[in-house]
Design brief:
Elements: H1 2-6, H2 12-19, H3 28-37, H4 41-50, H5 54-63, H6 74-83, H7 93-110, H8 113-122, H9 129-132, H10 138-144, H11 146-184, E1 212-215, E2 220-223, H12 224-233, H13 236-241, H14 257-263, H15 270-276
Antiparallel strand pairs: 1-2
Helix pairs in contact: 2-4, 3-4, 4-5, 5-6, 5-7, 7-8, 12-14
């Protein structure tokens, strides 16, 4: 097979063999040396890729093909379709951008700035106009890049407007949180000596000093143990995680049943909503 590669111009069978991603049973470095010795430059492109030498693959693909009279450059087309069609595995975005920039620089040198603009467009936002401005003269920028610069400025204007809107929303959210925190300082719950637990109906102070929970928003009072047992009977945090209509962020910081009890009243909060969907025959409170 190697003799076939170095002894002929690249055909469809050769390209399929070299560009295959299947495991290879030959030495790519030796094959590359032989292709270079016999001036089979197109054969070198996939071998350079297999060895991770992408810059060399790009340069040899570009410089080993001629540009046709209609302006079509087969090497450029192959680079975009075979080498830069997707980021190689293990390559970071900065290195991938350098490969696109290398192609743009070669296009500016060998073709024109208009063709370089097409490379920028085909990069899918990997390259931007400002990335290639350093490689062209000021006169060229004025003549060929005017529309592209206007489009770039319009894009930046849109992004700035979006950032300003995001900042406004963040400020409003921050102010709302501050107002809510200030309001918490004035919220309280009053517990009388005859206060009973809303769940077990026994006196709050008749449980031998057991801790109790007061919810200032609704003024409901419970024994802590009663609340925890109720939540555990509902499968605790799992029941809330599987609830589709739960308010976003409701479970932020909640890791245990005690955390859940501290979020909201079990009689008039999300807990009550979850209980509505529970079948009557599974609810012990309906037993006769």
């Amino acid at each position: 097979m190697l003799r076939s590669l170095v002894g002929s111009e690249m055909c469809i069978r050769d390209r399929a063999f070299l560009e295959s991603t299947a495991p290879v049973y030959y030495d790519p470095e030796y094959a590359l040396r032989q292709c270079l010795v016999h001036f089979r430059k197109q054969h070198c492109v996939p071998l350079y890729q297999r060895l991770g030498l992408y810059e060399d693959a790009i340069l040899i693909a570009l410089h080993s093909t001629e540009r046709r009279g209609d302006g079509e450059w087969e090497g450029l087309k192959r680079v975009q379709e075979v080498i830069l069609n997707k980021r190689p595995r293990g390559m970071d975005s900065a290195t991938f951008k350098k490969l696109w920039l290398l192609v743009a620089k070669e296009v500016i040198t060998e073709l024109s700035t208009r063709d370089a603009l097409q490379v920028v467009e085909k990069s899918n936002d990997i390259l931007r106009l400002e990335d290639i401005l350093a490689f062209v003269s000021e006169d060229t920028v004025i003549q060929n890049f005017k529309q592209a610069i206007c489009n770039s400025l319009n894009r930046y204007t849109t992004e700035i407007a979006k950032l300003a809107e995001d900042e406004r929303l963040a400020t409003e959210t921050s102010n709302a949180i501050k107002r809510e925190k200030q309001g918490l300082h004035h919220r309280f719950g009053a517990v009388s000596a005859k206060q009973t637990c809303e769940l077990c109906k026994r006196g709050i102070f008749q449980q031998g000093g057991e801790a109790f929970l007061v919810y200032p928003g609704c003024q409901h009072v419970f024994h802590e143990g009663c609340v925890l047992r109720k939540l555990e009977a509902m499968d605790g945090v799992i029941a809330f995680k599987t609830e589709e209509g739960l308010t976003p962020g409701y479970l932020d910081g909640v890791r245990s049943v005690m955390d859940l009890a501290s979020v909201e009243c079990v009689m008039c909060g999300e807990c009550a909503i979850i209980e509505v969907g529970k079948p009557i025959d599974e609810d012990a409170s309906w037993d006769i």
